[in-house]
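Anyone up for a design puzzle?
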């Protein structure tokens, strides 16, 4: 196991994150129907700064360099994961799993109800990875309006809707007990 430190993202880290996102996206070149994602836009620096300011962005540091990050947002009683990215050459070393566990712990310690995200179905490092962490697909008839809007925005951005799903991990009882 690689020695990786997970910490809150600092403002001076933000300029490094787009290159990590681009590197992570290179994995999509292995999937002909989704290869275009490797050339898609990355998250804007201003957006990263919003998550940094809110204390819902974490980086993974290994060998003295930032090799991955996770950006999330507290929405009502949920922590929504907007982006998880690990440099391609560092993937498969448990870094994404550690970042996710950090976010899940954050949700739990803040007494949130769940962690939510949208992701690709059947892409090995997407839906099956999140399932391995305990996430479950939210059936389309039960997707709350907030997540449904995110899925619709993704479709409007050009992502085929049948390839996407919303997922949720409950971290505390809905009634707060």
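Challenge accepted. My sequence:
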């Amino acid at each position: 196991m690689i020695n990786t430190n997970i910490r809150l993202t600092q403002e001076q880290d933000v300029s490094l994150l787009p290159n990590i996102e681009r590197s992570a996206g290179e994995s999509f070149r292995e999937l002909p129907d989704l290869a275009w994602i490797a050339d898609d836009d990355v998250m804007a620096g201003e957006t990263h700064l919003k998550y940094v300011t809110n204390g819902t962005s974490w980086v993974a540091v290994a060998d003295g360099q930032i090799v991955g990050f996770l950006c999330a947002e507290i929405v009502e009683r949920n922590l929504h994961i907007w982006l998880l990215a690990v440099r391609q050459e560092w993937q498969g070393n448990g870094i994404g799993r550690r970042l996710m566990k950090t976010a899940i712990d954050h949700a739990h310690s803040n007494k949130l109800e769940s962690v939510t995200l949208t992701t690709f179905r059947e892409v090995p490092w997407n839906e099956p990875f999140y399932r391995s962490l305990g996430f479950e697909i939210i059936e389309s008839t039960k997707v709350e309006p907030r997540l449904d809007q995110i899925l619709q925005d993704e479709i409007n951005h050009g992502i085929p809707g049948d390839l996407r799903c919303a997922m949720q991990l409950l971290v505390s009882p809905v009634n707060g007990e």
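A detail worth pointing out: The beta strands are 4-8, 57-62, 65-75, 78-86, 114-120, 136-137, 164-170.
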